[in-house]
Design goal:
Elements lengths: L3 H6 L10 H14 L18 H20 L3 H10 L4 H12 L4 H16 L5 H17 L6 H11 L5 H7 L5 H35 L47 H13 L6 H8 L10 E4 L10 E5 L6 E2 L5 E6 L5 E4 L4 E3 L2 E8 L5 E9 L6 E4 H6 L2 E5 L3 E6 L5 E8 L2 E5 L1 E2 L15 H9 L5 H10 L16 H7 L20 E7 L15 E7 L5 E6 L4 H16 L7 E4 L8 H9 L3 E4 L9 H21 L6 H12 L13 H6 L14 E5 L13 E11 L2 E6 L4 E5 L2 E4 L4 H22 L17 E3 L2 E3 L2 H12 L8 H4 L1
Parallel strand pairs: 1-5, 2-9, 3-8, 15-18, 18-19
Antiparallel strand pairs: 2-13, 4-7, 5-6, 7-8, 7-14, 10-11, 11-12, 12-13, 15-16, 16-17, 20-21, 20-24, 21-22, 22-23, 25-26
Helix pairs in contact: 3-5, 6-7, 8-11, 9-11, 16-19, 19-20
């Protein structure tokens, strides 16, 4: 027996994201038909004091609505919904609406294209046709682009088939959608009844002709034209009804002598302008038009009106034309005698020229240069000759025309047949940049998440966003654009052929790759923790990486043993079977080889002078070091922070999709068999305000937080920070982030503060007074780089104070 939930879900395809509009309409229709929609809209539960039955009905409706919405989504979306932790159907509906209902230019173009298709190719049933248009108008309303009722009525009249031409005349003054719908349905029923009568008449006439053929032919001279529906001529019998158009009896609408003038009036009502030869009118207005070919272009399509946001593709035109100059940039007036010659010999005056940036249905932004502004034109036009002259190719078939870029084959725009014309949907996109078929500009939000994710590539960032595992990151990001930090930190040589070394492992931790890097030599000072070397361990199956830093190479053996012990404890069902290393002596010591042999791990050293055979480890080192370098550049931090940067880079890399895995899968997923808990990524090197413990605060009104440098996550809900005052690394839970702040600025500020403090301490010693003639100097101490430089006399006086252990408290460090 089929349950109620199964019945609700029948005929509803799962929500995948792009099909949200159709999915939402189907779910809404099903819930309304079963009386459960009130749980979603308005979605207000009964108030206090409500009757028990009312509460029970509400609970049932909410449960049914929740189940219908949840169970008609894909597995990935159900995972997102489960994280919401709610059983309220309205909450699910609002979440999905905000997540998947797009208001972008591409979404508007798609809706406009669907609306154009519906208007130009109406369904056979007028009820279905009107319902389809109503649904599209509703979607435009939801994305903030409503169409007023009068305009909808005009477009509906415009879309009716030719059999309704007489009806258009009689209903042209109707501005109510409901009233017009009723009239159209009634007209449809009348047409069907008339068709049935005509069919019977044709059958009787055919029978009569078979027995007694008439000498006159319907298509010859002396006959009358047959009706559009194939009805008999006037000779076949008089028409007893009244004409739709002139209301006179005795003839049908198709035989009415006033049909031509009526059609002109309908065109004026629908399009707002008369379908007359504007080019001829323009020529009469400018009788002194020049005959200079340089001032005359050719346009074939004249007098063909288009809907807003659409252009006619005219293969015979050598000029792009618009009637409205509001979207043009770099506008310049044309010479008074400049005009465009039309195919009928008329001349259409040109008011000026400009550049027009438009967005195609595919989201591509293109610039049409030197577009002619012709106020007398009643439509927009794309010049086909101008496109082919610029290297484009136009291919036609029965229903569409495709314009492609000649060399690359990239689709530039696509036109569909509307009446006798090829129409291209284009959305005006005003911009100050000059581009021709260029990529969309960078999205600031995408650049922000690119920096938070350790400057990973755009495709990887988009894949990470689609997983929904990063709190606050939208599932769809805009274009990344150019990142100068990546260009400075990631430039590399061209690829070399890869060396095949057998099948890749499929079980996590079955085979690991190990590769050290360093030494990292610094010009000034030491790195955090005194580190000079790094060691990267990569799992071949999952691409998961672990990073450790070392002060000496000899520490590598101990790190590998500790890693093996931790992996055996944490992943007992994933024992390490093989390990691939390079020929570094610290990785092939007798003690370490004996350890691997004792634990049943096979060692596979790389051949000499062939680092490509350990390519996975080499690539991991390159990825981590490039991310580290780029993150340090972006944060304006000195190279001494590289140990913290490589740890943060490894953390991010394990949580972004990897190219060698399934689509959208991250190394963390592949290793643990589940995605990580959603968490927010923070920008490495940003300012993090850490709470000062009460025990360390000097008073009730003293500062409660101190600025630190964010070095990456430590563990759940904890951050790794650098205190520039104590110059120590610490882990804190209570942190407020300022991602606009730069670590380099904070370091410079702290160095200046310490410099001033050291100068004040030296002055407190009074080393330049009369009692210390030996140490007398003639200039103030100066700061050179990160050091405080003083004269030789002051140096000797300070050394004497230090030898006598008479330095004031707090000044010894500065003097040393």
């Amino acid at each position: 027996m089929t349950s109620t939930s199964d019945k609700l879900r029948e005929g509803i395809a799962p929500l995948l994201g792009p099909n949200y509009r159709l999915w939402a309409e189907r779910v809404k229709t099903v819930l309304r038909s079963h009386g459960y929609w009130s749980a979603v809209a308005p979605g207000t539960p009964p108030g206090e004091g409500a009757a028990a039955q009312e509460l029970k009905d509400w609970t049932t409706a909410n449960a049914k609505a929740y189940g219908c919405i949840f169970l008609t989504t894909s597995d990935e979306i159900q995972t997102d919904l489960a994280r919401l932790g709610t059983e309220d159907g309205k909450v699910l509906w609002d979440y999905l609406r905000d997540e998947y209902r797009s208001t972008s230019v591409e979404a508007r173009l798609q809706l406009k294209s669907e609306l154009l298709d519906a208007l130009t190719a109406p369904k056979e049933s007028m009820r279905d046709h009107i319902g389809q248009l109503a649904g599209l108008y509703e979607q435009l309303l939801q994305i903030g682009k409503p169409v007023d009722e009068e305009e909808r009525c005009i477009e509906l009249l415009w879309s009716l088939p030719s059999a309704y031409r007489g009806f258009k005349w009689s209903a042209s003054a109707t501005t109510s959608w409901t009233e017009l719908r009723s009239k159209i349905l009634e007209a449809e029923r009348s047409l069907k009844r008339e068709d049935e009568k005509d069919a019977k008449t044709r059958q009787d006439a055919a029978f009569a002709v078979y027995h007694a053929p008439s000498p006159a032919k319907s298509s010859g001279k002396g006959g009358t034209p047959a009706s559009r529906h194939g009805g008999a001529s006037k000779d076949g019998g008089s028409f007893g009804g009244a004409c739709w158009l002139c209301k006179q009896k005795g003839h049908r609408f198709f035989d009415c002598p006033h049909i031509d003038s009526a059609q002109d009036f309908i065109s004026t009502k629908v399009d707002g302008k008369k379908h007359q030869d504007t080019a001829i009118m323009a020529r009469e207005a400018t009788p002194q038009a020049t005959d200079d070919p340089a001032d005359v272009d050719l346009a074939c399509v004249v007098g063909a009106s288009t809907m807003a946001g659409h252009f006619i593709l005219d293969t015979g035109s050598s000029r792009h034309i618009v009637a409205d100059a509001s979207g043009l940039t770099k506008y310049r007036k044309a010479n008074p005698d400049t005009g465009i010659e039309c195919a009928n010999g008329g001349l259409m005056p040109v008011a000026g020229y400009g550049d027009l940036v438009v967005t195609t249905q595919a989201g591509l932004r293109i610039e049409l240069r030197d577009v002619a502004h012709c106020p007398s034109a009643i439509g927009n036009l794309i010049g086909g000759k101008r496109l082919t002259k610029s290297g484009c190719t136009i291919a036609f078939d029965n229903t569409s025309a495709v314009v492609t870029v000649g060399k690359s084959g990239q689709v530039l725009m696509k036109a569909t047949v509307v009446g006798e014309n090829w129409v291209v949907p284009l959305e005006s996109a005003k911009t100050d940049s000059v581009m021709v078929a260029s990529e969309p500009s960078a999205d600031p939000e995408t650049m922000h998440w690119h920096r938070c994710a350790g400057h990973v590539g755009e495709s990887t960032l988009q894949a990470l966003a689609a997983t929904g595992t990063v709190a606050g990151m939208p599932k769809k990001l805009g274009p990344l654009g150019f990142c100068s930090d990546c260009a400075e930190g990631k430039i590399a040589r061209s690829k070399h052929p890869r060396i095949a070394i057998g099948e890749r492992e499929h079980r996590p931790l079955s085979k690991i790759h190990v590769d050290p890097f360093g030494p990292v030599n610094l010009k000034d000072g030491q790195a955090l923790g005194g580190a000079k070397y790094g060691l990267i361990i990569t799992d071949e199956a999952s691409h998961h990486v672990w990073v450790s830093t070392m002060q000496y190479k000899s520490e590598a053996a101990g790190i590998l043993k500790a890693f093996h012990a931790q992996a055996s404890t944490r992943y007992p069902d994933k024992p390490i079977s093989r390990i691939r290393t390079d020929n570094a002596s610290e990785l092939n010591s007798a003690d370490l080889l004996e350890y691997w042999a004792r634990h049943g791990v096979k060692v596979e050293p790389s051949p000499r002078y062939a680092p490509q055979s350990n390519g996975m480890a080499e690539r991991a080192v390159r990825t981590i070091t490039e991310m580290c370098r780029t993150m340090l550049i972006a944060a304006n931090l000195p190279a001494s922070f590289w140990p913290a940067a490589v740890r943060a880079a490894a953390y991010v890399k394990n949580r972004v999709p990897a190219t060698g895995l399934k689509k959208g899968e991250t190394p963390y997923d592949a290793l643990h068999g589940r995605p990580p808990k959603p968490e927010r990524l923070r920008m490495f090197g940003c300012i993090a305000w850490a709470k000062i413990p009460e025990a360390q605060r000097t008073g009730k009104f003293s500062t409660k937080a101190m600025p630190c440098i964010y070095l990456g996550p430590a563990f759940t809900n904890a951050s790794r920070l650098w205190d520039p005052i104590s110059k120590k690394e610490m882990i804190e839970h209570s942190v407020v982030f300022d991602e606009e702040g730069k670590a380099g600025t904070l370091l410079e500020k702290e160095q200046s503060r310490q410099y001033e403090q050291q100068v004040a301490q030296l002055r407190a010693l009074n080393l330049t007074g009369d009692d210390a003639q030996v140490g007398r100097v003639e200039k103030e101490p100066v700061r050179i780089g990160g050091q405080l430089e003083v004269g030789e006399g002051v140096r000797a006086a300070m050394q004497a104070v230090l030898d006598e252990d008479a330095a004031p408290e707090g000044a010894r460090e500065a003097m040393e």
